[in-house]
Amino acid sequence: EPEVTQTPSHQVTQMGQEVILRCVPISNHLYFYWYRQILGQKVEFLVSFYNNEISEKSEIFDDQFSVERPDGSNFTLKIRSTKLEDSAMYFCASRPGQGNGANVLTFGAGSRLTVL
Amino acid sequence: AQSVTQLGSHVSVSEGALVLLRCNYSSSVPPYLFWYVQYPNQGLQLLLKYTSAATLVKGINGFEAEFKKSETSFHLTKPSAHMSDAAEYFCAVIRSGGSYIPTFGRGTSLIVHP
Predict the structure, then answer these.
(1) Cβ atoms within 10 A of the Cβ of B63, count?
(2) Mean pLDDT confidence for B87-98
């Protein structure tokens, strides 16, 4: 079964450092997403990406965050100047956008970010 | 704006007992509703979805959910819990006709006792 792959599974960083979380979506999917879940809280939408540009973003997704699809397979989330409150599980997801299951998101296992 | 509320951050049942995980939604238009499950160290996996067809939706692993518009609910049930059902369960809503961005609840942790 095709899956969304995320790396690293866990990253520990010092406050103020930059981190890049990587995702490989399912190959024929057209829409990509990042969500995050702070421990004990809701899974929150950050950003959606289609046709090489951001299609929607939440108020959480400020100038500290950026996304990129540097090649045909990777989809990255960059967090600049990390803060303690950025500690969370970050989920990548993708969906086909057409055909059967067009609107069903497939999620990766998540990347746990710990900011010290 | 749409939202979901999952009542109870933890639900504990005995193996073989009925599982009931509650989800209430708010949406200004008919919604699409989903239940996802997350097993330890894995991603969110789709259990089932409601997209305005049958109100009783059957999913994987013996789970089902019933869409009740009058109660704005989409509770998840399974007649007989199995130890392997222990996981985190998330309800999510998408506003039909809008952007396909699910809004998730806080999640409910299902604990199954032998």
Answers:
(1) 20
(2) 84
CA A19 to chain CA mean position, Å? 12
- Average pLDDT of the residues in A81-101: 92
Q: Which residue type occupies A95?
A: R
Q: How many CB pairs under 8 A join A and B?
A: 53
Using a CB-CB cut-off of 8 Å, the residues of chain A touching B105 are 42
Q: Are A77 and A86 in contact (CB under 8 A)?
A: no
pLDDT of residue A87: 97
Residue B98: predicted pLDDT: 65
Nearest to A30 by CA among B64, B46, B9, B100: B100
- Say which of B41, B42, B100 has its CB closest to residue A95: B100
Among the partner-chain residues A33, A42, A106, the one whose CB lies closest to the CB of B106 is: A42
CA distance B71 to chain A (A): 22
At residue B31, the pLDDT reads: 82
Which residues are within 8 A (CB) of B76 and not within 5 positions of it... i.e. 6 or more apart? B19, B20, B21, B23, B35, B47, B48, B63, B64, B65, B89, B91
What band does B97 get if pLDDT is binned at 50, 70 and 90?
A: low
